[in-house]
């Protein structure tokens, strides 16, 4: 692949070059706000300052793909985000919730992230970047990364149009992963050469650690166990609203049958003799996991948004991964790979039914 090596301080000029050259009309990218990190939509290149302090920051507040869900306009947006966010954006393209020609996906290496409030409270210890050794050291101080990150096997910038990979010291490798990415890098004024960015040994270690952590999670292996797991759920639907790949315009659970109140609730109680309140708690989560089972990128935004602190990483990513393995599908890997439920092959699930 074609790319170049930049000092961290030169990344500011690179991002400004994307806007100045009209490779993109705007950028969605992280920005530092005191001890915290949040996203900004920027059109004026002069609003970009010291991006290296934010783009590598191990903080997760919202999945950037959720910001562009429904971006069906022609103006081109560049998204600077972590691998799980880029993968969600790729799924949105396949779900026709994002126009492929209107987006430039710029993916940054991620060692793992902390919930934004944890990151802000412990910024003095965490800093602008972490690696596996530092994550382990911080865990000894009871500063732990998000549950979703412990089971993530896709932490390296190897999807999207442009990769920004952390090199040794204060340098980053910026490389084009697609023709679109190479064109954007050239337009931004970078001199490109052949760059190797496979990192197979590192990928294998990340995958092995993720698998071990996934297998160590407590199991939800029955309906009774699921009901107990979800017992504190208030059906606030925060998990739905922050999910980057949950996009129905008219959600069943905003309709009278899905969200019964007043007379509808009384009618249900008449039919069943008694009805749990809030109603449809179990149905809500079973329906949601069905809807996202092939496209979930296990970003963990659902767990972060839960006001009752239900560890949803033990539910959504675990179940969806099993479904994805059945179909041999990795969400967000390739924008051209068809969604499993949109294709059909004779006897494709025959082995699963034996």
What does this structure look like?
The protein is of the alpha/beta class and 354 residues long. The protein folds into 2 domains: 2-215, no CATH class; 223-353, no CATH class. Helix content is 36%, strand content 14%. It has 16 helices and 10 strands. The strands form 2 sheets. It has an 8-stranded mixed β-sheet with strand order 3-2-5-6-8-9-1-10. A hairpin with a 4-residue loop joins β8 and β9 (171-176). The protein is globular, with a radius of gyration of 21 Å.
Structure characteristics:
two-stranded parallel sheet, globular, 10 strands, 354 residues, eight-stranded mixed β-sheet, alpha/beta
Chart the SSEs and their pairings.
Layout: E1 2-7, H1 11-20, E2 26-33, E3 36-42, H2 52-55, E4 59-60, H3 64-68, E5 77-81, H4 83-94, E6 103-108, E7 114-115, H5 116-121, H6 123-126, H7 132-139, H8 147-150, E8 162-166, E9 171-176, H9 179-187, E10 193-194, H10 200-215, H11 223-229, H12 238-242, H13 263-272, H14 281-292, H15 301-305, H16 316-326
Parallel strand pairs: 2-5, 4-7, 5-6, 6-8
Antiparallel strand pairs: 1-9, 1-10, 2-3, 8-9
